[in-house]
Amino acid sequence: MEPDIASLAAMIADPSRAKMLTALLSGKALTATELALEADITAQTASNHLAKLLEKELLVVRKQGRHKYFQLAGEHIARLLENLMVLNHNITSIKTGPNDPSLKVSRVCYDHMAGEIAVALYAALLKQEIIIDKVDHCTLSPAGERFFITLGADFTTIKATTRPVCRPCLDWSERRSHLAGTLGQWILNDALHKGWAERDLVTRAIHFSPRGKRAFFNCYAIV
Amino acid sequence: MEPDIASLAAMIADPSRAKMLTALLSGKALTATELALEADITAQTASNHLAKLLEKELLVVRKQGRHKYFQLAGEHIARLLENLMVLNHNITSIKTGPNDPSLKVSRVCYDHMAGEIAVALYAALLKQEIIIDKVDHCTLSPAGERFFITLGADFTTIKATTRPVCRPCLDWSERRSHLAGTLGQWILNDALHKGWAERDLVTRAIHFSPRGKRAFFNCYAIV
DNA sequence: CCGATGCTTCGATGAGCAACGAAGTATACT
DNA sequence: AGTATACTTCGTTGCTCATCGAAGCATCGG
Can you give the residue ranges of the HTH arsR-type domain (chains A, B) (predicted)? Predict the structure, then answer.
């Protein structure tokens, strides 16, 4: 028979679990109590939910002393969640984008950047033909690879995984593509590493310093 | 705040609704009673579910006399459902593929082909460089377009929509890509039109005649 | 060791909601 | 018109499951 999509969807259908999952979209590993706080429930119920999410393999866990660090089981789960956001966003809301303005400008999407700046970056990379776009996918051009090497990117590690290097990821606030994949990951890490931006300690927001933003825009020729 | 993915997921989380939705993955428009039968529930409860699915815009409806024909609201919904299938499939079952052997061989996925044959077709198109694959996307090569024109394809209509012409769609039984998009749609319609295959009247299965299968394999050089 | 912290198990409570029977509305067939 | 068919509305029932309090286990810090 057809596979059982209901039980998987049910994992996301509970509001508390949904809150936990979206919190984990930050890519950070969070402890059980942090997730309980995030979802506004007690530790007991959170424990219950987390057990279910583990059983269905939406999450993985790493035990460290008396803490348990939970993470999304992989990019595929993150993609599913973002997919749901895009669909639901298109459906329910007139007002576009998140209410929190800093989330709208720049935020983390699993392990890469999303939001206005990320969408502008994607457009800039396209314009310079660093990446080549084909409706719903993209590739890195040879010139693009050279460009990133001059920035200090190490393509032996970027290409080491089975994950694609470039992947367009639909931005639920902008409804346009931004860059995911290992290269998207590298760009975020690089910007953080160079001190151009910092991750918010509680939300998914990414805060650029004024200088950092100028440097970032200059580096990638974002207009 | 973050968008509300829970309520959308809840639509799919109910087993009866999930059955209806998977039935509609056939791409066919089904009436309320047909869907009630499919989900093994009475007409009243089905009516209830369908109202919810309409409200959340997972379905669209066309009224025709005393019948109401329901369809998926678009390819985006179909993709979401197939995504869920892939994930759930990878997670829960050891045995790969559907139990029904004819579904495993060939079935409809919204408006294109899926299953063993469709996966073999995708591989054959790749090998002949009719389509160019890049991990998670693909494009039609110029030679490929000429090839399909000799088969009688009309690219003015194929390219008329905003939908991509080629799109890889992960096959939940084979765990490999098959071809979606308007070209995937054309291939299915063409095969049906030429009498190589017929759609099952009740399930999503596609039945190739022995001659039809030979002709299909020969046409696309499937090995 | 002992208290504090993080997480889990158990049992009870309660709310949400899927399900259906019964009755109502709309359309079609003759 | 009159009956059958398709779908909807209403009210009731009953089950599932999220929630939390209480108590338990594990780990850390002194």
Answer: 1-92
Where do the H-state alpha helices sit in chain B? 5-13, 15-24, 32-39, 43-55, 75-92, 101-105, 116-127, 142-150, 155-158, 181-193, 210-220
- What nucleotide is nearest A64 when CA is compared to C1'? D27
Contacts 24+ apart (CB under 8 A), B159-167: B163/B75, B164/A134, B164/A135, B164/A136, B165/B140, B166/B131, B166/B138, B166/B139, B166/B140, B167/A136, B167/B137, B167/B138
Tell how far CA A23 is from the center of its chain. 11
pLDDT tens track for A97-127: 455 678 888 988 888 898 889 989 998 998 8
- Cα of B170 to nearest chain A Cα, Å: 12
Residues 67-106 of A, Cβ under 7 A from nucleic strand C: 67-68
Look up residue A205 and give its DSSP letter: B
In chain A, residues with a C-beta closer than 8 Å to the C-beta of B84 are 5, 8-9, 80
Residue A208, classed as helix, strand or coil, is strand
Enumerate domains of chain B plus CATH numbers. Answer: 5-73 (1.10.10.10), 99-220 (no CATH)
Question: What is the C-alpha separation between B32 and B66, in angstroms, rounded?
Answer: 11
Encoding tokens for residue B209? 């005649």
Contact A5, B81 (CB under 8 A): yes
Q: Does residue B221 sit in helix, strand or coil?
A: coil
DSSP one-letter code for B115: S
**What CA–CA distance (Å, rounded) separates B9 from B108?**
24
The pair of structure tokens assigned to B204 is 């999503």
Nearest one of B13, B27, B10 to B70, comparing CA atoms: B27
Beta bridge partners of B71: B60
pLDDT at B42: 96
> Closest partner residue to A12 among B9, B57, B172, by Cβ?
B9
- Average pLDDT value for chain B: 86
